[in-house]
Write a structure and sequence with these properties.
It contains 13 helices and 14 strands. The chain is of the alpha/beta class. The chain folds into 2 domains: 125 residues, Rossmann fold (3-Layer(aba) Sandwich), CATH 3.40.50.720; 228 residues, Dihydrodipicolinate Reductase, domain 2, CATH 3.30.360.10. The strands form 2 sheets. Strands 13-12-11-7-10-9-8-14 form an 8-stranded mixed sheet. The longest helix is centred in the C-terminal third of the chain and has 20 residues. It is globular and about 55 Å long.
């Protein structure tokens, strides 16, 4: 495969994962932009890039300058959540393919703008919802689509995590409506996305309670409980929290069908611990791969995202998790927040909702 290059906007904690994943996928970091030169150097110093690779990275503090100067094949956006859509639109306008760290945006209007702009400019947009690539998750999705679970009955996504005050103090944008979006947007979006995806995608109605129970120093939710009614007649349940004492407890995904039961656990729901599916044993390669993913090295979880992007650039694969998928993920969360605010079920599809619409909700 020919060597492709990318430029990174945002020297955040997650950008370290992206750099390692891209290197594993054979992609070259050609430019790096952040408002803080120190942050860029910190990330580069902590990466596995060799000295020559680091020297060949052009650095700057203004991404508009980067867009004018770089010859990268695509741009990765790893800034605070609130700036994802604005930067993506500028990248698209400049003619670049884009990989956006989750979430795609903090408003449905902005997500739609990204989708429409990409179509107009004929460029690709991928969203880093990397858990869809997990062999265990892909095996589950395949079995359901193949009919091995029979008629779907219900599924459950549990995200029982901990985030303490030090976590929020480490970055001022965390826990804000304008730049972070809250626990459901930040910590819980991956499993919420997987639940919607494997259960059929199309949602009829959502009812939820959300609250801020144990983090008075943030603006947003720290817990959400949601019930989903799918258009195919099945149901979903979401439990997302960062209030578990004293550390992360678990992330699990259950799916129940007439002829199948599955339970996935571990980091990124990467390990199958229950698989009782009629006439469908787990393939051996899935067993082996999820054992590796249960204790991933830095970059492992994002590696398939970059491999897929490289294959897309080579004309071999479509983008696996595109902008529409990114919008679907945030629509579920908006439905939960809106239902909690209105204290009633919410019908989908939704339009024109933004996280800042919920400012003051828990005050």
């Amino acid at each position: 495969m020919a060597e492709y290059s990318y430029a990174m906007i945002g020297a955040s904690r997650i950008s370290e994962q992206h750099i390692e994943a891209a290197k594993m996928a054979g992609l070259r970091l050609s430019a790096f932009c952040d408002l803080s030169p120190d942050n860029i150097q910190r990330v580069l110093s902590g990466s596995s890039l060799n000295d020559d690779e680091k020297k060949n990275v052009a650095v700057c503090g203004d991404y508009h300058h980067l867009l004018k100067e770089t010859d990268a094949d695509f741009i990765t956006i790893a800034t605070d959540s609130g700036s994802h859509a604005r930067i993506a639109l500028d990248c698209i306008d400049a003619g670049f393919h884009v990989l956006i760290e989750k979430p795609i945006a903090l408003s449905l209007k902005d997500a739609d703008a990204v989708i429409n702009a990409a179509e107009k400019k004929n460029v690709a947009v991928a969203v880093s919802l990397q858990n869809r690539f997990n062999p265990a998750v892909k095996q589950l999705k395949h079995a359901i689509e193949h009919g091995d679970f029979g008629r779907l009955l219900h599924g459950c996504a549990h995200i029982r995590w901990n985030r303490d005050e030090e976590y929020f103090k480490a970055a001022s944008w965390r826990g804000t409506w304008a730049a972070d979006g809250g626990t459901l947007f930040n910590q819980c979006i991956h499993n919420i996305d997987i639940l919607r995806w494997v259960m059929g995608g199309e949602i009829d109605e959502v009812f939820a309670y959300t609250d801020r129970l144990a983090h008075p120093y943030i603006e947003t939710d720290d817990m959400g409980l949601g019930l989903i009614k799918m258009k195919n007649g099945s149901y979903g349940f979401i439990e997302g929290t960062i209030n578990v004492y004293p550390k992360n407890l678990e992330e699990t995904l259950y799916v129940f069908g007439e002829t199948g039961t599955a339970k996935l656990v571990g980091p990124s729901v990467s390990k199958i611990v229950e698989w009782n599916v009629k006439d469908d044993p787990i393939p051996g390669e899935v067993v082996q791969s999820y054992e590796k993913l249960a204790q991933p090295a830095k970059g492992d979880k994002h590696r398939p995202v970059y491999e897929n992007f490289a294959a897309f650039l080579a004309g071999k694969e479509p983008i696996f998790v595109d902008a529409k998928a990114g919008r679907d993920a945030i629509e579920v969360i908006f439905a939960m927040l809106l239902s909690s605010k209105q204290k009633q079920p919410v019908k989908l599809p939704l339009k024109d909702l933004a996280t800042i619409d919920f400012a003051g909700m828990y005050d």
